């Protein structure tokens, strides 16, 4: 029987529990004033994920006093200022109010083992929830907080002949009335089918159109939100194929794209990061990109796993081998950022205006650093956190 938590997700969600069973107690800021919150973030401490809001990057430090307490590994999404959280079998909706998150509407209960990992919003009344444990995309009304339909993708599983009817739908994106759903196509915990696969679904009828594939790289998405796929200013969709996080010999990672006006992979484009000679890191190579965000003008900001910086054998608790990089999709280059490397269980980031916010656990501490691409300047550990940064989003 297949498992639905991939190697990187397992590392992220389980090693945190080894680090702490109690909350940290840093200096705490005053309670937030009754004003608009600019960010929602989550941290992992022990067996829980704590989700809370804060005003801006000038708060100095953050505690968990006003946080929601969720099962470890709960994923958060933002749509029109509201926060949606899934603990893989439930979906909750919250609104920021007086410095706290207050639940709105019903809790959507999903089938056992749903593994609801990604939510893509089509409108105020329609959102798609990829359930990698079911092989289905569940359709919900995010305003009424009700399930309104589902799309069964069993027919697209490559393991059907062996009784595997689940192609593991993962991250998705909508362009021009089509929902593009990455399929992980897992064979076992550490083995995926070779190649990249994406299902196309008509958002008017919610009927599958086709599946497109590419043999050059593998595994079109990990089974957790990682900042892709995304659309650039040209209208092209980029998928990062994670190739089993470096655990599977014989498959390659890299970026693919589907150009504006097209519905098949661009045969002229494939960018494999492992082929780049990286300057400034031990071994000069990466095995895969982890969390990432599109910054604009063809530039992606991401954490690259640097095998040369890891222990032998790897020490997933203490190794800090995830290095922030700027990736240029257009000229196929990678530039190391002047930020310390972080552990894999504390690596998140988001875009805020023209800036990139990095949530990290470094030798200097845990919290958020800010990179200003326009001036190539940094504000290191500008906000300290109680707990390991797990996710951060602008509230917009």
Question: What tags apply to this protein structure?
Answer:
mainly beta, 31 strands, about 5% helix, about 400 residues, single chain, five-stranded mixed sheet, Methylamine Dehydrogenase, Chain H, disordered N terminus, five-stranded antiparallel sheet
Contiguous helical run count: 1
The strand count comes to 31
Strand order of the main beta sheet, please? 3-30-29-28-27
User: What's the CATH class, please?
Assistant: Mainly Beta
Concise account of the structure shown:
With 396 residues, the protein is mainly β. The chain has one helix and 31 strands.
Task: Write structural notes for this entry.
Keywords: Signal. Residues 1-20 form the signal peptide. This is Lipoprotein. The chain has a single domain (7-394), classed as YVTN repeat-like/Quinoprotein amine dehydrogenase (Methylamine Dehydrogenase, Chain H, 7 Propeller), CATH 2.130.10.10. Helix content is 3%, strand content 46%. It is built from 1 helix and 31 strands. The protein has one helix at residues 7-19; strands at 39-45, 48-54, 61-62, 68-71, 75-79, 82-86, 90-97, 100-103, 108-109, 116-123, 126-131, 136-141, 146-152, 169-175, 178-183, 186-188, 191-192, 196-202, 207-214, 230-231, 237-241, 254-258, 288-296, 299-305, 322-328, 333-336, 347-352, 355-362, 365-372, 377-385, 388-394. The chain has a 5-stranded mixed sheet with strand order 3-30-29-28-27, with no helix packed on it. It is globular, with a radius of gyration of 20 Å. The termini are far apart. The relative contact order is 0.14.
């Amino acid at each position: 029987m297949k498992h639905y938590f991939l190697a990187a997700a397992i590392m992220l969600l389980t090693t945190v529990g080894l680090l702490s069973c109690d909350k940290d107690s840093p200096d705490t800021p005053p309670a937030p004033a009754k004003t608009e919150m600019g960010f929602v973030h989550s941290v992992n401490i022990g067996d829980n994920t704590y989700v809370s809001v804060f005003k801006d990057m000038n708060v100095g430090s953050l505690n968990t006093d006003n946080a929601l307490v969720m099962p470890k590994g709960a994923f958060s999404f933002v749509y029109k200022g509201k926060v949606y959280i899934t603990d893989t079998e439930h979906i909750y909706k919250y609104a920021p109010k007086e410095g706290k998150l207050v639940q709105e509407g019903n809790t959507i209960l999903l089938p056992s083992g749903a593994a609801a990992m990604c939510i893509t919003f089509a409108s105020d009344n329609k959102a798609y929830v990829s359930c990698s444990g079911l092989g289905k995309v569940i359709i919900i009304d995010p305003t009424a907080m009700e399930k309104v339909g589902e799309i069964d993708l069993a027919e697209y599983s490559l393991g059907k002949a062996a009784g595997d009817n689940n192609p593991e739908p993962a991250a998705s994106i909508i362009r021009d009335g089509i929902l593009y759903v990455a399929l992980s196509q897992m064979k076992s915990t550490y083995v995926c089918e070779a190649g990249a696969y994406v299902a196309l679904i008509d958002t008017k009828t919610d009927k599958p159109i086709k599946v497109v594939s590419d043999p050059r790289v593998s595994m079109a998405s990990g089974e957790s939100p990682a900042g892709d796929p995304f659309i650039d200013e040209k209208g092209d969709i980029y998928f990062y194929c994670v190739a089993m996080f470096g655990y599977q010999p014989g498959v390659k990672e890299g970026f693919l794209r589907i150009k504006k006006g097209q519905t098949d992979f661009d045969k002229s484009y494939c960018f494999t990061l492992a082929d780049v000679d990286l300057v400034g890191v031990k071994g000069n190579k990466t095995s895969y990109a982890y969390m990432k965000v599109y910054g604009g003008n063809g530039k992606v900001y991401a954490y690259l796993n640097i095998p040369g910086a890891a222990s032998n054998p790897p020490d997933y608790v203490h190794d800090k081998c995830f290095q922030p990089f700027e990736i240029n999709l257009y000229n196929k280059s990678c530039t190391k950022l002047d930020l310390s490397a972080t552990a894999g269980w504390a690596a998140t980031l988001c875009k805020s205006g023209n800036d990139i916010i990095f949530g990290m656990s470094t030798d200097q501490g845990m919290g958020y650093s800010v990179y200003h691409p326009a001036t190539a300047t940094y504000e290191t550990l500008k906000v300290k956190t109680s707990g390991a940064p797990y996710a951060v989003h602008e509230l917009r």
